[in-house]
Automatic annotation (TrEMBL):
<dbReference type="Pfam" id="PF21040">
    <property type="entry name" value="CEP104-like_TOG"/>
</dbReference>
<feature type="domain" description="UVR">
    <location>
        <begin position="214"/>
        <end position="249"/>
    </location>
</feature>
<dbReference type="InterPro" id="IPR001943">
    <property type="entry name" value="UVR_dom"/>
</dbReference>
<dbReference type="InterPro" id="IPR052607">
    <property type="entry name" value="CEP104-like"/>
</dbReference>
<feature type="region of interest" description="Disordered">
    <location>
        <begin position="324"/>
        <end position="375"/>
    </location>
</feature>
<dbReference type="Pfam" id="PF21038">
    <property type="entry name" value="CEP104_N"/>
</dbReference>
<dbReference type="InterPro" id="IPR016024">
    <property type="entry name" value="ARM-type_fold"/>
</dbReference>
<dbReference type="InterPro" id="IPR048739">
    <property type="entry name" value="CEP104_N"/>
</dbReference>
<protein>
    <recommendedName>
        <fullName>UVR domain-containing protein</fullName>
    </recommendedName>
</protein>
<feature type="compositionally biased region" description="Low complexity">
    <location>
        <begin position="327"/>
        <end position="344"/>
    </location>
</feature>
<dbReference type="InterPro" id="IPR011989">
    <property type="entry name" value="ARM-like"/>
</dbReference>
Amino acid sequence: MLERINFRVIHATSEDPSFPSSELERHGPGVNGWRSAKAATFPQELILQLESRAKLGHIQILAHQYIIPETIELHIGEFLGEQDGSGELQQSTYSNKIDLDKAHFILLGHVTMARNDSTGFKARELKSISVECRGSLVKLLIQNNYSNKYCRNQQQVALVAINLLGEKLEDDDEMTKSASQITFEEMLQSERDKSLFSPYDDLAFTMYVDIEVQDLIRKMDHKKQEAVLDERFDYASKLKSSIEHLRKAGELLAKYQLEKQIAASREDFQRAKEKKTQMDTYRDNLYKTLRVKQLLEPNGRVPENDEPGKVLGISGMTRSVTELSLPPTTSSAASTPAESTTSERFSSRLTTPDNEKKESGYYSNDEPKFPPPLFIKKRRPVTSVERIKEPKEDSYTSPSAPCAGCIRPSNMSERARRYAALPIQVFGDALVEKMFSKNFAVKEDGLRCLQKTLSDYKRGDKKTDPPSKIFRAASLLLQRTIKDTIFSVFNLTIQTLVYLMDDFARKHRLPASELSQGLERILPELLSKSGDTALGKNKVATECILKLQSCQHVRILHVISSNLTKPFDIPVHPRLAQSKAEMVEELLTNYGLSAEKHSGLTARDFVEFGVSALNQPSESVRRVAERIIISLYHTHPKLVRQNLPLEEDVSPKNVQYRQLFQQFDKIDKEVSIDRKDGGMVMNSIIKESKSTHQMTSSVYIPKI
């Protein structure tokens, strides 16, 4: 497994006095990184000397949020010192001064950085480059900078952090081992581990977690690996849970540390003192609550660690947590805790020159919310969902109000909150968090609450949202839960979806554009589930699609039919292709052909789909396609033959087309016989009419 390789910066073309290149040698929340001098000339060069010769596997580069280089060239190098008495070359040590003229570098490649304007210059890009090279020097050649509103006329580039991951090569014999001496097991192990490294050596961890907490997490991770080898699985589970909570708390402590530094730099010593007291109190409560000392077992094995349910966060297979109390604050400057997530703290709150006058760090001055609850108060098994009495049927609650029985099973990530911004606004945090829970029982309860909210919705109340907004929010939630692998969750989602698209849409007369958008959002997920290898999901998804197509207000939108009859561009999974072909055959049987061009039910649509299905590798799909084409040949023989290859061009060895053309010939013979019989009947009618009406000048011919 790769490990972090320490280095020192031995050369930089230029640097800003406030941001020296030596800042790149350390990682932590308060690190500002290196910046070149203003009006610098390009390329800018950085040379790093590794603490020992190493085989590198990954190079990580954390860019600045708005002072961004365009490209960075990576070079690996060796320094060859003077010859000793024996004629051998001596390599420079980590502490020696280096003559760069004697260093030799090889180009590895280059990486291109993003402009970052899409994030408003409030996020940092982390590049992780996989390499496979050996050396003792690394050179970064930085070319130009992106011009933006914050860095328009300044020829300046910056890097916040650099991380080198690899294996130290201490033994010269190991470095020069020939291929014939490497065993098969060593080769397999090398291939397996060459790209693996601990997540606690990643820049995403080391730059945003409190340094003291980082050390504790690494110790606990080492203990966890030992516990697994010793088959102490209860102990390993407790360590895993504590590591998760420590990481979240470490991010919060890092935020406090930066706020303390900001207050001290502004000479606001009272606030800096309060932050220090807050940090110390929180840290002590955290370590005491998590029983960190007991889990680390400094004096040998602790029997309580091997007993299930003794450590907070673990109770059987479920986790129930309660919040730590806030440390007391004495100043009125402290504000109400603001709810924020990790990605908010470390991406959206990065500073730009517009707000550097107000804030010289990476975070705002708002008091943060404490991390998620950690422990159970009673040592008893608890269920993941504790139900509360259902409200009376007569009473109606607003969709944004918390529904009865709703709990907060877990905190949502920032990405999830951005996705669910509308559902949170409409249905509230409690219900949406249940829909995003990883516990299937909690998710089922959320779907039931959503069903009840939709069925109880009454239009016209000033306090409630319009039905179109309710529909959009519900379809966003169902689009997510329809992907769930648990059948009970998927089945409940389908039931809710049918109610939303049928009863709710008809009852509240949703506009066609709104209904069409919702269908286009969910239909691709339904189609993919119709090809699921699990027979239950496959059947439920297919029935749902046909059920929605049977609804008059949905069918006139032509969304489902046009998607189903879309021809196959490439070979798809046999199960998915068969389900789609069977549904198209069902459409043709139940609804026939339509003259509307964009309905997806025209003869041309069916023929093109059938011809594309004939090219699928699955025999069951081709049989359905043959039935569709033969059915259409009775009414549109010319159109069918136009879309198929000519009969004389088909190879005799192609059994499928040969049998298909034989069926066409048989149908043609039947049609010609019918026409011949019809002609004979018509001639007899004409003769009879002439004999009975000699004086008449017109003959009535009945329709055949």
